[in-house]
Structure formats: structure tokens, C-alpha cells
Fold:
Amino acid sequence: MITVLSGGVGAARLLRALRRHDNGVDLSAVVNVGDDLTMHGLSICPDLDTIMYTLAGANNDDLGWGLAGETWRAMQRLGELGGENWFALGDLDLATHLYRSQRLALGATKTDVTHELSTAFGLDITLLPVSDDPIATEFDTELGTLSFQEYFVRHHHDVVVTAVRFRGASAARLSEQSRDALENSDRIIIAPSNPLISIDPILKVPGVASILARRRDDVIAVSPLVGGVALKGPTERLMRELGHDANALGVARFYQGLIGTMIIDVVDADHADAVAATGCDVRITTTVMAEDDHAMALADAVRS
Amino acid sequence: MITVLSGGVGAARLLRALRRHDNGVDLSAVVNVGDDLTMHGLSICPDLDTIMYTLAGANNDDLGWGLAGETWRAMQRLGELGGENWFALGDLDLATHLYRSQRLALGATKTDVTHELSTAFGLDITLLPVSDDPIATEFDTELGTLSFQEYFVRHHHDVVVTAVRFRGASAARLSEQSRDALENSDRIIIAPSNPLISIDPILKVPGVASILARRRDDVIAVSPLVGGVALKGPTERLMRELGHDANALGVARFYQGLIGTMIIDVVDADHADAVAATGCDVRITTTVMAEDDHAMALADAVRS
Structure:
């Protein structure tokens, strides 16, 4: 059994590679909920949905987010009505949020709803929101305080960030299912997601970091920075702005004490000694999953 | 200035006829909100939307509800996900509810949102929810207590009703705008909507019935029953089940003391004396608005 601490796209690709690599392995993902938002009355969980759509093979490769074959009738009309449509919700995607919102209103937990949706999408991995309690990632920026999606989507993560907060995290309860997955899996993998805004809100839920510290020999992190560059999103820029080295070494230091092994890309081989000096084993492989055989190589490295 | 107490379809057709009849008249509608519901996290106001869509010329004549040119991508997917889709929300229609829900969440009132949406749809009449406070019409039935839409849509109003309640109505505040419209219009018209479930929840908001009683000489009701039959919906059946005569006389008795004039259809001319005996003037005309010239005749009768 493998459990993956997960953000969105990078985690989804790693999970897909792990599933392809070994059809029989029992896979769970403990997923960030700090990006979750309520908009237009709808409860939206971007990381959970990104993973779900990707693993169902229903993701939109052209856009890099959302569903394949999507249409935008509701959003277009919402714009015509003068509504806020900077956070684009496709007609098919809306169904996910309608389903979730209705079930939550009837008293289901986010964990329940995630299980129901995952089943409907035919997933054979267990998706677990790290907590059923609300956690909201917030950014102090040159434009003032922004919610995650205001920062990420509305402002295209193109503003200077001075601090990141995870509102609600310290009071959030680690879900039983997530605790079980973290306690009982043979291996815990930290996906190549943004350490500061995708993984840290998971680590900040009381219980998670202590389980990792105790089990650190079984914890493997995959660096999301390759040659100092993130494949997607603002990881590199945020690492710099918040005082970290924007490379594999900075990532290793961020996870120091929580991981037994760090996987870095071949192009970062010259960082290997410095990473090892933070107190973990280092494995060097290709970490870019754009091509299937590379993704398999990463899955190999993670499993070995 | 004319103010119309309004349910959905029948009121929308009367308002459209009044607008066509006199392009210059200042028209307001004080609209029932007892059918309003929250579903999938969305705030939905069926009567307000029916009137808005109809007056914008955007209504779906084939269905008899909703928007012309509608598509159903979100609903179809919601059904595939195992979600509740008995209350069909088209992709374009969803935009209205997304807009409203977001604005309400930001602190706007239903009155504010109705004004914004009416403007976006290009309406030249003033649509006013009777109250910004929640009112929920409920039915005691052979299947237990049902919400309005469970009764009307889910069970196709094909269940025996023993009582109707308007939860919240007695504590609801008549909106200032609705009060102004009722106090200051030259004429108040009760639309040919269902007296028991479309008009009564308006009358039950404190202040409305007393204004009508005081101004009864200026109040005209249009009977929704023609030859004892409703053009649409369960008016006839509900009148019977709840102990009223299911004809123009039953309607006149229901509005007794609140109206100065009752308009009945030519086919109900034999009821004229009995209706007059309830204490109101009677006008006889065609009340069926399916054809434009008939609608004009009704508008004439209402205005004269």
C-alpha cells in the first residue's frame, strides 16, 4: 500500500504513473484542500477534482485543467449577465460541483462525497481530503490579501507574495481515513507538487508532520523543481519570494526531518551531495512525466 | 402605474400583455417567493425567473418553462454521477442561479439581485420579490410533508394535499419597494395565478392583505379558472382538495374583502351574479391569453 501526499496536476500524473506501473498496488492519495473554495454557492475542490479527472482519463490535456470535451454555455451566459466568470467552470465540470454542494448540504462529509464521485468516475485509487474541516490558503501580496484562487487564477500567480497562511489548518482534524492511510501504508510519497502551497497545508494539519517524522524512513519526496524550474505554476518564484533556495536543495531543506529519501532529476545531479547532507538518501532519475516512459522511470524510483 | 401580484407563467403572460397593450405604462410585479429553493447550493427563484425570461422573450415555449435554446450538459452529467436531477436546470438557466447565489453570498438582497438580473435581461418592468426574507411553501400530502418543488416537479402535483403552509411568511418583512408599489400604484391586479399557492404566500406577508383591503376599489383579480379548469398546474384540484369551489366563484370567495373587481371568462358568465354577491364588480371577457388578441382583450378589461 502506497499513500501519496497530493496537490493537483503533478500529483495526478505521479498517481497515474504509479497505477500504470503496478496495476495491483493499493494506492491512496491524501489531498490538499487549502485551494478549495465556495463560489456562486458551489463547493469546489480543485485538487481533488484534478486528480479525479486525470485518473479517470477525462482530463482536458489542451487546457491543462478541467474536463475533456467541455463546453462553456453557463460561463458565457454568466459573463453576459455581468457575473464573475474569471474562475471558469465548464458545463460538465459544474455537475461535479452541483453534486458535491448538494451532498454537503444534506450532511455528507467531503470524504463521503469524494468517495462517491471517485466511484462514479470509476477510479481505482482511494482519494482522501486530508481533512473534512475547512482550510483556506491565503496570500499576503502587493495587492493585499488574496484567496488561493484569486492569487492563482485571477492574478495568474503574477504578484509578489510576502507570506502564505493556511486559515483553519491548525484547528482542522486529520480525517480518520487519511490517518489510517498515513499510518498503515508501506510507503508515503510526497508528490512533486508545490511544497509551499500544495503540500504544506497538508503538513500543517495536526498529526500529519508527526506521522511523517516518525515514519521518515518510509517517506520519499519527489522534487517539483527540475534544474531550478517548475514544470507548472509558481513554485520557483514562490520559493524565492518566501526565502527558500529555488531548487532541489531548497525543497529538501523544506522537508528536512520528514523524509528519508529525496528523488531529484538527473539535471540536478550536482545537488545530490548537498541534498544528502540535509539527512536523507538521494535517488537520481528523470522526474519529468510528460512522456510515459519517463513517468514509468519515476514510478520505478519511487517503488524501489 | 400598475402593480401586479404575480406567480409564474400566468402572471408573466398578463404582464407581457399589459406591456404590449400600453408601452408607456409604469409596470411593477410583486412576486411570490414561496416556490424559491436552495438546491445544489444554488439559490433558485422559479417565479421571478419565469417572469424575467418571458418578458425578455427568452422563454422556452416548447417546454413551457426555462430558456429558449437551452442545453442540458450539466444535468445529464449530474445524472451520470448519481446526483439528484429531477429539478432540471439547463446550462443557460444555471448562469442565472450562479449569478444570484454569488451576489447573495456577497450580501446583496434578493431585491438587489432581481434588479440586476432584470436589467441584464433588458426588462422594462420592475420585478419585486414580495420579501427579502425566506418563505417556503410546504404541502401536507399523502406522502408526508413536501416542499413546493417536490410537490410540483418531483411528484408532478399528482398527490393528495390536505394542507398548505407558508413557512416564514408571518415573520417576513414586506420589502420597501413592494410596499411602495402596492401603496402608490393606480391599480393593483391579482394575476390569474394559483390563488392558494402563488398568490396566498404574497397575501400572507404582513401588510399586503391590509393594503389590498384598504385599497380594494383599486384591486382587480383575474380568475385563473376558466370553465372550472386551470390552463396550467393544479389550481382546480387544489381548490377542491382544500375545500373551495373549483371555479370563478371559489376564487372570488377566496379574495373576498380584498378586491373591488373580478374578471371572469365569458364561459363563466353564468357565475357573474354569484361572484357579484361576494361584494365585487364583475367584468366578463376572454381571459385565455394563448392568442395575442385575447391577451389584448384581457389587458383592456384590466385597464378600463
